[in-house]
From TrEMBL:
GO terms for cellular component: membrane. SUPFAM superfamilies: MFS general substrate transporter. One of its GO terms (molecular function) is symporter activity. It comes from Buddleja alternifolia. Belongs to the major facilitator superfamily. Phosphate:H(+) symporter (TC 2.A.1.9) family. Belongs to the major facilitator superfamily. Sugar transporter (TC 2.A.1.1) family. The lineage of its organism: Eukaryota, Viridiplantae, Streptophyta, Embryophyta, Tracheophyta. This is Major facilitator superfamily (MFS) profile domain-containing protein. It comes from the Eukaryota.
């Protein structure tokens, strides 16, 4: 049985237009939403490894680290209050993403981006001046609202603005900004932990307001996408002129006609969340759940949230732990940049497979090293510390190449317009739910699973690579409004999409 998928029906569909300064600048501003998400992911693990921060807000953990030598290496940071600080953002993001779907559909992508940026800016300010743990957590909730709105709207904005043949690269700018945000946070944490007086963590938390300010102000000047204007019933000539400006050519009739067709189908639906449950949308529904699920069970957010804590677990000091995070961030971001340049040339499936291998092998090796060499009360030698750092860098390179950027790209490009906002909300909501679960349970799992935690995530990496091989068709070079053709030609999904089309045709013919 052939697994590869031809896209013969869509090979002859070509839209005019190239990358223009207009679409480039608009997309850069929108992709700054990734900086928000990335910075917060990276800054959290750093500040929670700083002694002054722990001493002020989590004194129980601080005492356990400094005074209780009987505590296992794997259990020193086991605290539900600490994990609540980390994970509260993501449960708030989950709830916000559901509301964001209605805003994005009714008011447009730009409005959703603006709301998200403003909420995040407020949360960053509150975190920087926090006087107790409750202020910290409330600030995190506001950050979650901001991330929920921007993560729901920015990938859609990028995919709809980009020319079809460059859509992969444009959308990956979001993940590139996520990785860059993490890296910036790591560098700032490394510098602020050296500030005398123990208030450096406040700088780290407050600096999240910088990217939030950029996207909030930038969103005021962003145009909405032609797709969104047409969907919301705006003047079609205005939408066409905007499309011509975006593409840099007058000849956009083919793409514009497809936008009109998709919009007319979209307007007939009163409940996108109910519609996506229909049989003909089964591939998109499965992908909107499976892709974000697998993206999170790679274990990447364990590295993002807790890399400094992880290195302190194996015996590194605070400064060395934070510097290790900087190295990991550089590697991951560099590989995302590489993926941006090759994704529209080699395709999505090849990158997924390479990334799976690069993530699986290091996880298994790290688990083996920690099981054999660390123990409950010892520390790894300098040589093994370096080896673990190298292996984590290889793992981060695999994620930065594949599941990091493609986990955002694939869902944003496969959904028909009529279910696009609802499906993206499911995608973001599932992602936030899994991030919340991983963030909330990891320190407990680390305490109980110990070195086996890496084998746990390794098994999921193997499963998701198999899933991609058999069930994800190639989407390279397929126009976003013609994406439904790939499901009807897939060896498995055609049984759902094909049956649905046959049923609709029979109704039209009166059979």
């Amino acid at each position: 049985m052939a697994i590869s998928v031809a896209i013969s029906k869509s090979e002859d569909v070509h839209y005019n237009g190239n990358i223009t300064w207009f679409v480039l600048l608009s997309s850069i501003i929108a992709a700054t939403g990734g900086l928000i998400f990335g910075y917060d992911t990276g800054v959290t693990g750093g500040v929670t490894s700083m002694d002054p921060f722990l001493k002020e807000f989590f004194p129980g953990i601080y005492r356990k680290m400094k005074e209780n030598s009987d505590t296992s290496n794997y259990c020193k940071f086991d605290s539900q209050l600490l994990t609540s600080f980390t994970s509260s953002l993501y449960i708030a993001g989950l709830v916000a993403s559901l509301f964001a779907s209605r805003v994005t559909r009714a008011l447009g992508r730009r409005a959703s981006i603006l709301i998200g940026g403003a909420a995040f800016l407020t949360g960053a300010c509150l975190g920087g001046v926090a006087r107790n743990v409750y202020m910290l957590i409330f600030g995190r909730i506001l950050l979650g609202v901001g991330v929920g709105f921007t993560n729901q709207s920015v990938p859609l904005y990028l995919s709809e603005m980009a020319p079809a043949k460059y859509r992969g690269a444009f959308n990956m700018c979001f993940q590139l900004c996520v990785g860059s945000g993490c890296l910036i946070a790591y560098v700032i944490n490394y510098g602020t932990q050296k500030i005398k007086g123990g208030w450096g963590w406040r700088v780290s938390l407050a600096m999240a307001g910088a990217p939030a300010l950029i996207i909030t102000v930038g969103a005021i000047f962003l145009p909405d996408t032609p797709n969104s204007l047409i969907q919301r019933g705006h003047d079609q000539e205005k939408a066409k002129r905007l499309l011509q400006r975006i593409r840099g050519t007058e000849n956009v009739q083919a793409e514009f006609d497809d936008l009109i067709t998709a919009s007319e189908a979209s307007r007939t639906l009163k409940s996108p969340f109910k519609t996506i449950l229909e049989r003909k949308y089964r591939p998109q529904l499965v992908m909107s759940i499976a892709i974000p699920f697998f993206q999170q069970v790679t274990g990447i957010n364990v590295i993002g949230f807790y890399a400094p804590i992880l290195f302190r677990t194996i015996g590194s000091g605070v400064s060395a732990s934070l510097m290790s995070s900087v190295v990991i961030g550089i590697v991951g971001t560099s590989m995302t940049l590489l993926s941006l340049f090759i994704v529209d040339k080699v395709g999505r499936r090849v990158i997924f497979k390479i990334g799976g291998i690069l993530m699986l092998i290091p996880q298994m090796m790290i688990g083996g090293i920690m099981a054999a060499r660390l123990g409950d009360h010892g520390a790894l030698s300098q040589g093994y510390n370096i080896l673990v750092l190298v292996l984590i860098c290889i793992y981060a390179s695999g994620f930065g190449l594949s599941w990091g950027p493609l986990g955002w790209l694939i869902p944003s490009e496969i959904f028909p317009l009529e279910i696009r906002s609802a499906a993206q909300s499911i995608n973001v909501g599932v992602g936030f739910l899994l991030i919340f679960i991983v963030a909330q349970t990891f320190l407990v799992m680390l305490c109980h699973f110990k070195a086996m935690i890496f084998f746990f995530f390794g098994v999921w990496v193997a499963l998701m690579t198999v899933f991609v091989y058999f069930l994800l068709p190639e989407t390279k070079d397929v126009p976003i409004e013609k994406m439904d053709t790939i499901w009807g030609e897939h060896w498995y999904w055609k049984r759902f999409v094909g049956d649905a089309h046959e049923y609709e045709d029979s109704k039209v013919l009166g059979l």
